[in-house]
Amino acid sequence: MDVRSRIIEAAFGLLAGGGELTQPRVSRAAGVRQSHLTYYFPTITDLLQAVARHSFDRLAAEFGAAGGRRRGASIAEGIARATRDKRRVRMMLGLVVAADRDPSLKPRMRAFVKELRGRIAPMLGAAGLDLGEHDMAFIHTVVVGAAVLQLARDSAQARREARAVLEKAVKCVSRR
Question: What contacts 84, CB < 8 A, 6 or more positions away?
């Protein structure tokens, strides 16, 4: 694995574990000097963006592999499976906390959310869901809520409930 990838994986691991992301912690976890970290990611904001993109790319590969063949409840199951990944949800929450602590991250997070929704829409479109802007915001909000509640409750009941809610959300937007 190259240095850049090691840094991203280390940062993902720290965020997924609920830890604070600092340059010294990331460089130690990646086994690189801090100067290497700052060469690839001059600011912690740059690193956070890279981690978020990396996580989404993994998710897109998982979902996209079967996305074109999915319909209705199957789409919801694919989304539900992704929301069960505790590391990904912790990483997402870590990004939210980081943006809350550092207001300079907020414009980048807004841009990332816009990009994320823009990349998700064609995947859902291939699965039969043609979503407008508000439908996409609705689905995104439901997915985030389901993921956070599953993580907080961590039970089979929470997973069943999340899947049922996601199925209902998919049905709601597919009626249009």
Answer: 150, 159, 162
